[in-house]
Amino acid sequence: MSMVQVQNLSFSYPSSFDNIFEDVNFQIDTDWKLGFIGRNGRGKTTFFNLLLGNYEYKGKIISSVEFNYFPYPVSDKSKNTHEILEETCPQAEEWEFFREISYLDVDAEAMYRPFETLSNGEQTKVLLAALFLNEGQFLLIDEPTNHLDTEGRKIVSNYLSKKKGFILISHDRDFVDGCVDHILSINRANIEVQSGNYSSWKLNFDRQQGHEEATNENLQKDIKRLQKSSKRSAGWSNQVEASKNGTTNSGSKVDKGFVGHKAAKMMKKSKSLESRQQKALEKKSKLLKNVENTESLKLEPLEFKSNELVHLTDVAVMYGDEIVNKPITFNIEQGDRVVLDGKNGSGKSSILKLILGKTIQHTGLVNLSSGLLISYVHQDTSHLKGRLSDFIEEHQIDEPLFKAILRKMDFDRIQFEKDISHYSGGQKKKLLIAKSLCEKAHLYIWDEPLNFIDVYSRMQIEELIESFNPTMLIVEHDQTFKQRVATKIVSI
């Protein structure tokens, strides 16, 4: 056991005037299983790069362990998997690799196949297995779930729960809950470390915010009451001041000693009220700095002329001569929120593309109602680059509406001036979702919309779907999301 100590850490990118981190202090135990959470663009991956020594910074990061990063870069994916793993962890024995990948439900024969022939999920699993065999290293795991199907997420979460010595960035609530014992959270105003999983952290965070909101409300009342008292005190002081000429309103003479005593008393009371008001304001200023405001999103789905929008009969996707999935039959009616569920490589995205009119070899029939308007969110964001204004012009988006949606999804105005290629993975995905929300459509087809998206925005999107009841066809592996929004699950 050893500690990683962060002392007075400050960092900003050379092209930015704003600090990502400012005078940050905390420490973590290298035996912990640490979940790392925070909204998109707050600096989670940046912090990983600081630990890895990739950026210069102010302050200190003190550690006796070596850091390693997942996803591990594989330079030549044409090599057999066992060669890749031996390069990744040269001190491990072959039997150790077989043991670890068996825990992750990967077939032993995968070791003798070219790495590039493994599915994305299999690649994730075998690289995690190899990296955990590197003794004396602290593993920085960045969004491992993006290439894992629902079953794969359960397997990897269970695997991580039996390990120690890692920091995990993930926004999948069930996944994080299953494998961590501490939470490192990047909040609006600070960074906190807390014992427990995501659910216990969220419960404590919400309780703290509720307490601060109640305290803030009471302080607001106190400040108003003190302001009124100050005004009354000022009125009394003016009356006393007027009496210093030695006469009362009736014209009779007054006791000068009494007037002086009363003036001093009024002055003392006024100073006391002013001091109490200042203390209340200072206490109020320390509250609600970490509150996460999630404004409600809006959507205007179009109503279709008939109840049924799409019908698939015995559809199976083909890659060459190979049939990928067992034939499936389902329909989409107005108000349906259909989730396609299945393992990686089972043809889910291909079925979405078939409905979008793409040319994909298949069996069976795909029937779309005439005049159907579809809005599509692509799984991949790697093509996004250039200025936001060019993106808006290219897709003929309502600019004020589009930017208003992005602001509600936690975009700072400064992001509008950046090249899109500099956005975080979550910010790029939000860009595609915001575009879809600007489009009036009969059917919304979203392919893994929550990849990289932070927890607060996930809940925001869930509330949007529940409120406006759009007709949707979705591929998504986040279990909480599926349970909350799906009206129908079609298993492939």
UniProtKB/TrEMBL annotation:
Q: Region labeled Disordered — which residues?
A: 226-256
- Tell me which residues make up the ABC transporter domain: 4-213, 310-492
Query: Which residues fall in a compositionally biased region of kind Polar residues?
Result: 235-252
The UniProt keywords, alphabetically, are: ATP-binding, Nucleotide-binding
Which top-level group of life is the source organism from?
Bacteria
Give GO terms: molecular function aspect only. Answer: ATP binding; ATP hydrolysis activity
Signal in keyword set: no
**Entries under NCBIfam families matching the protein:** ABCF_Lsa_all, ribo_prot_ABC_F
Q: What is this protein called?
A: Lsa family ABC-F type ribosomal protection protein
Question: What is this protein's gene name?
Answer: lsa
